[in-house]
Design brief:
The protein has 423 residues and is mostly beta strands. The protein is 6% helix and 39% strand.
């Protein structure tokens, strides 16, 4: 497939962004059947060397690389990525798997696991039977929590989209797909326990792009997500909270909508990597904006915002939670970002799911063209200064001003519905 005919608008400051590995993938499809088609949308967890982390790092490295190896003196980065085969031999739908690769902090690969660390559930009625997609991983205390999109099969009744505006309905199939926010946990980043869909009022026809904040604020856990109803009337980043990771979760409504795009017929946003704590309840949030440029071509770009949880009203009016936003921090520019080499590729796409800080820079790992894992870095101080100086204040919209739907959640009696979480 050729790159899209419609070029992107410029980015916020191309010179401030350094694409790593000369703009080539740091991970791409290989000969393993489950990842032979596309490998993309990566989470990233940076583990510095410490008495607490060293056993986890040793497990990730395996027997081939000792902890004394100078390459791991500053720790490692665990990258969990979404993978799909060129042709799934066991399903008419190319299911998604989650693979794992281990890197140095400057993203030199040390190890790539041969088998996925998470597979679609064998149960045909499970919420992730058709795929485990787009992981984001947050460490809270001694446990790693993965929020991912589970894809389920539902009876075919329309060419319904999968919630990203990509028209993934297929008249040749006798089923549609729905995406559900799902949660899993691990203590070693290799072995994962599924916890299903979080209880509360988060789920709609589709819910994607979920990510947990890295710490409690005001005594609560916080979550960004992007629920979508059957008519896709709202495709914006929403905020939810819970007194416990096991739920129930209470949705507080929209906090950030897509900025206007002068050439787009339709735009939407979704959360990206784990928010980076700035102190005092403020966080740096990377996210994506997707757009239909015409009836054929799309564009996904990377944006940034500062979110202040101290402004959350807990009453469904959250228009002031986003302090600042910087649109088009990165736009598709390179051949690996623009092209669409295989049938499951989508050209002109940047999709951030992972980030971490290292030596004054923020490393951004992103899916490119729904095909590859690429990486870039930006100076932390430059990015925060650019956000503070930005005049791109959060877009006001009816979505933000509209209170969250009133859904009764029995917090006191939720123990029966709450998922079992690690202590």
């Amino acid at each position: 497939m050729n790159p899209p005919a419609v070029a992107s608008l410029g980015s916020a400051s191309p010179a401030a962004i350094e694409r790593l590995n000369n703009g080539h993938p740091i991970l791409e499809p290989n000969g393993q059947w489950w990842e032979s088609g596309v490998t993309f949308n990566p989470a990233a967890v940076y583990l510095e060397r410490s008495d607490k982390n060293d056993p986890i790092i040793a497990g990730l490295l395996g027997d081939e690389i000792p902890l004394a190896d100078p390459r791991v003196a500053d720790g490692v980065v665990a990258v969990h990525y979404r993978a799909r085969p060129l042709k799934d031999p066991y399903c008419s739908w190319n299911r998604s798997f989650i693979g794992l690769a281990v890197y140095t902090p400057t993203l030199q690969m040390l190890r790539r696991f041969e088998q996925p660390v998470m597979r679609p559930d064998d149960d045909p009625y499970a919420v992730d039977h058709l795929g485990v997609e787009d992981p984001r991983i947050t460490r809270i205390d001694d446990v790693f929590y993965m929020v991912y999109c589970g894809v389920a099969k539902v009876p075919h009744h329309s060419a319904e989209t999968n919630g990203d505006g990509d028209g993934n309905g297929d008249g040749a199939r006798n089923f549609d797909t729905h995406g559900y926010l799902c949660l899993a946990s691990s203590r070693d980043l290799i072995h994962w326990e599924r916890h299903g869909t979080p209880p509360g009022n988060l789920q709609c026809i589709h819910n994607k792009d979920g990510v947990l904040f890295p710490e409690k604020f005001a005594g609560r856990f916080w979550l960004l997500h992007r629920p979508v109803d059957a008519h896709e009337t709202v495709k914006a980043i929403q905020l939810a909270w819970s007194n416990s990771l096991s739920g129930p979760w209470v949705n507080e409504g929209v906090i950030l909508s897509a900025a206007p795009h002068p050439r787009a017929t339709r735009t939407w946003v979704g959360a990206g990597s784990v928010p980076i704590a700035l102190g005092g309840g403020r966080y740096l949030v990377l996210y994506h904006t997707g757009s239909w440029l015409n009836d054929r071509d799309r564009e996904y770009v990377i944006d940034a915002a500062i979110v202040d949880l101290g402004r959350a009203s807990l009453a469904g009016h959250n228009g002031e939670v986003v302090e600042r936003r910087l649109n088009r921090l990165m736009v598709p520019q390179t051949p690996h970002e623009l092209g669409a080499p295989v049938p499951d590729s989508v050209g002109n796409v940047l999709f951030p799911c992972g980030s971490y800080e290292y030596r004054g820079d923020i490393y951004i790992l992103y899916g490119a063209a729904d095909t590859y894992v690429l990486a870039a870095k930006v100076n932390r101080r430059w990015l925060l200064d650019a956000l503070e100086a930005s005049d791109e204040t959060p877009a006001r919209s009816a979505e933000i001003d509209r209170p969250a739907p009133k859904v009764e959640v029995n917090v006191a009696g939720a123990a029966a519905a709450a998922v079992s979480m690690p202590a």
